[in-house]
Amino acid sequence: MSEGPSARRHACEDIPMVRVKTIACVVLALTVPAVAAQVLRGGGATAPLLAYTGDTSLVLQTPGTGSLLGAYTAAGNPASTYCPTGTGTGKQILEGDPSHPVNNPCLGTPSGFGSTGLTQPHFVASDLPLTTTDYATYQANRGGTKSPVQFPSLVTSIAISFNQPHVTSLRLTEVQVCRIFSGQINQWTDPQLASALTIMPGMAPPTGPITIVYRSEANGTSYNFTNHLSAMCGAQHLNVANQFKTDAAFATAAASYFPSYGRSVGVAGDANAVNYILGNVGALGFTDATDSVLAGADVAKVVNVSNGVAYDPMDVGNPMPVNITWDVVMGTSGWVPVVPATGCIGVVDPTTYATPASGYPILGVSYLTGSGQDNGAVALNGVRTLLYAPWNPAIRAATATVGPGTGSAFLVSTAMTMTRMDTCVN
Question: Which N-terminal stretch is annotated as signal sequence (predicted)?
Fold first, then answer.
């Protein structure tokens, strides 16, 4: 995956989402001091980058005050750094892939997870649950008796970004979303789309084909977006587009519909997808909400079918209750149990958040992953407490970058306890 450093803007730039701008400016105004000699090195997914660090720049970051990891350090825990690599590369680093060492470059800087000579990262963020391949690769590289750990951390939103200079707002129903991404609506002049468009006074409606912008590589954003499409558009709900599949590769998930698109273009990396949309009139695609808003892209409101309310993608809503399933990884045709069962790999079933009853309806769940063994005596307690940080009530209360208006929300489950961390992380 390749995303240039210019793809992300400093979070204090002028953006339409006032709350996010204010949060990001407060976060970036201060630097968290190191309170312990051990610095925890991690990184990975870019979707929760604002939540974790307070900034969406693709550089090696020291989390700011008010961010989740900043609040973690301010509570008396070790300092940390976060290297945005994307979910796929983050997983490879966790798994000990020789071609992706711990000092693997971040997306926008030559510095890696810390370039400290570590043999394994302290934590990795991922927008995709561990798969059978991930688990097998981890054990092959790190030892057959060793295993990764995985815990749900946040819910994030996926925006529908677009570029039409004379359209002041785009308010999409779920039927329209399904028809756009299935190619049933492939022109901006389609009468089925007219009700969604608010045109600038005195200007003509947009014309020409809709250019569908999608991620060309397998990634968590595509997985969660197609998780929504396959559930909402299929027979169990709207029954307007039945061929979507839930898959990390959009070209696979929507393969049946590509011939119907007016135009389409695959772009590697979320920030590059946002940049393509910003630079090409007529483009429309799915992107991480915080990336889109902080880059200044126009984003659609989407009507939740359960209550008929149109939501901005930054309005994820209140903390989301979830049921966590333990000791399974994602296989090619379902969930596969891991042996031995340790209670240390937790998954939120994607079907349970595919069609939420309230709030913005296109969501994904992010995870924090790590190693169950070999964390070292100095870092051990820090790794345990960091993986638990999204569930720690005091740290949650001190975090300004998660909650209303931020594009992310905390999760709620009685299954997540510090006792579990002490047992799982050694």
Answer: none
